[in-house]
């Protein structure tokens, strides 16, 4: 086993000892109770089964058959979640075949960052994660289930479902994905049209045509952003049917994998090989997720989300843990924006199974962990699923080599000996930078700062030609407390245009950029945020700022006396009003007041 992997795991375990012990004690107390229908009053049971067919009532009450809860993020607004429409019927059919029963315990909201990007709705996005977690808790609060199937894929939905499930840590749980859409216009070609539009060289009609060719059908978007990073991490945590992540929604194998998820869950319920999710997700499991993220150059959002996920299981991690792991985890995949391939090409080249096999072989993952596959360790996830003639799933070994070395490589010949994320620190605070997509000659940028308090103000300056020079663009008052920490993808095309003209350009922000930050160096999630008096509020236009991924530096080159003497810039009353009014933002005022910092997981429930 890799020495650093073991050291990081050990310090996480030591740091988390007290909170993890409390968490496991709660699981044990909940696990010792009688099953729901035996424990609850007759009126409670009658309400719970009132709408079920008589045969299901008989199975639950008289035969004491296993009873599963379904929590679904279905809506037909999200391309990734539209396929879930028929899943409850499919799941009920399979549980009946297995002599069990199932109910849709509840639905959770699921919003699309692609739809809300650059609009006020995006300011609800991060907080939707904790809303989904609470919705999951509401669904499972009926407390009659032996296990739960969790249906969700996209950005905040999977972390929210997982946080909610971990607060019911005594329940066995299996996640059920639905797969990516087929490849359309390539992500590189889409990005080029966006840059042309930013320069005014093509119009809205041409842009809409390109976007529609890229996002064209059911399934997740095909770039390796937060949604698809979710799926990679769940595979590495053992919470899927092995290999389920990137099979198309309408592939015959997809139905077989969904049926297998039912059988997999029934194998780990209390009456059988009991594996509650709260014990499955231990310190080793969390470290495995971190490693999988780094080895594939995944979304920076998970440096926020998985801190919150871990905390839900009584485990305390921080960005230093990610940084230390990144120094020893090899980069094994290049998927857009870290390369030109999409997730379909990633899957064809070997996909998650190939990456997990290579990491296990290199001693870069904990193989001796619990998984949702009864009696099997993480090695079960290092194989490829296929549909057998009888409609069931079987697994086969992957080839020794990559099917496409431009997309996936072995641990012996990685794209890079280190992972794709780095920690930055200095007198501007702590931030993360995704370097796996950034050319090496852009890993260090030192230039005068131009300060903006909104992405709209930055875009206006770009259109006016005010940024045609070496510049560190600073967009502040974008943190969780200020406005919910929206993703700032609208900044990417203009910054890419400036970089394409040969200027040295970097972005520094207390907002987010997700997995699609691209080739422009971006120091993001700066903590503490400007609204809470963080150092970004001391910056002034013209200050020289150094962003260096090589040395891990995020520094304003201002003498200490001048720096300390400066007043802290304040958000304007107009911005406070605009951040808090309209499109439901008033309902999230309590979350903005109570949210922790980005490095602490932007948690709202503590």
Descriptive labels:
606 residues, alpha/beta, 4-stranded parallel sheet, 25 helices, 14 strands, 39% helix, 12% strand
Overview in brief:
The protein is α/β, with parallel strands linked by helices. The chain has 25 helices and 14 strands. The chain has helices at about 5-15, 15-30, 35-40, 40-50, 55-60, 85-95, 115, 125-140, 155-165, 185-200, 205-215, 225-235, 250-265, 275-280, 285-295, 300-310, 320-325, 345-350, 350-360, 455-465, 480-485, 490-500, 560-565, 575-580, 590-595; strands at about 65-70, 100-105, 145-150, 175, 385, 395, 420-425, 430-435, 445-450, 470-475, 505-510, 520-525, 545-550, 555.
Provide an overview of this structure.
With about 600 residues, this protein is of the alpha/beta class. The protein has helices at about 5-15, 15-30, 35-40, 40-50, 55-60, 85-95, 115, 125-140, 155-165, 185-200, 205-215, 225-235, 250-265, 275-280, 285-295, 300-310, 320-325, 345-350, 350-360, 455-465, 480-485, 490-500, 560-565, 575-580, 590-595, and strands at about 65-70, 100-105, 145-150, 175, 385, 395, 420-425, 430-435, 445-450, 470-475, 505-510, 520-525, 545-550, 555. The strands form 3 sheets. The protein has an 8-stranded mixed sheet. Strands 2-1-3-4 form a 4-stranded parallel sheet, with helices on both faces. Strands 5-6 form a two-stranded antiparallel ribbon. Helix 6 links the parallel strand 1 (about 65-70) and strand 2 (about 100-105). It is globular, with a radius of gyration of 24 Å. The mean pLDDT is about 95.
